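Researcher: Quick test of sequence recovery. Tokens follow.
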């Protein structure tokens, strides 16, 4: 998108506000992770990544896992159609599962930034960073993640709640699908 999505307008709100609203309705504690030069997320406790020369989501995941105590759920603001019902469903699946990670599939892709992670994965995530291996999808097989199939999610949830928006074309598509509940 070429800019931060935090304050990107969407549906009369912003990406950041919509993500915060959906997460706050599904989790007891919601914390935003920002880059060192980022601005705090409105009305949410904000923690910051340590400085690093590279740009990759794995750094935010590492910071979240460093702060977490046990299982946590990581949600990027890239999902403006996200619902709290879907987040509650994924949360309960992760809590009830022994796997150190739970990853939903959507549009044929693992959604690594809408997934459950155990804080026990932090040493592995840090080792991947140290080795320059920033791809989070490699963790799925490496740790034996539990994967929630797209067929399961589509049977339970209408619309495109896991539509990840990263381009102007995807933003336009999401805006055409948006229905304020």
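Model:
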């Amino acid at each position: 998108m070429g800019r931060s999505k935090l304050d990107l307008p969407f549906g009369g709100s912003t990406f950041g506000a919509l993500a915060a609203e959906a997460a706050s309705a599904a989790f007891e504690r919601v914390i935003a992770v920002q880059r060192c030069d980022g601005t705090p997320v409105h009305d949410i406790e904000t923690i910051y990544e340590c400085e690093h020369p590279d740009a990759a989501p794995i750094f935010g995941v590492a910071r979240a896992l460093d702060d977490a105590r046990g299982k946590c759920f990581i949600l990027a603001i890239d999902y403006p159609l996200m619902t709290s019902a879907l987040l509650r469903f994924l949360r309960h699946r992760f809590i009830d599962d022994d796997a150190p990670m739970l990853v939903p599939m959507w549009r044929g892709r693992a959604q690594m930034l809408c997934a459950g992670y155990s804080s026990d994965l932090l040493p592995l995530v840090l080792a991947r960073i140290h080795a320059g291996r920033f791809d989070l999808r490699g963790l799925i097989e490496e740790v034996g993640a539990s994967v929630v199939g797209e067929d399961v999610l589509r049977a339970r949830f209408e619309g495109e709640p896991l539509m990840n928006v990263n381009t102007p074309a995807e933003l336009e598509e999401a805006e055409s699908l948006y229905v304020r509940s």
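The first strand starts at residue 9 and ends at 10.
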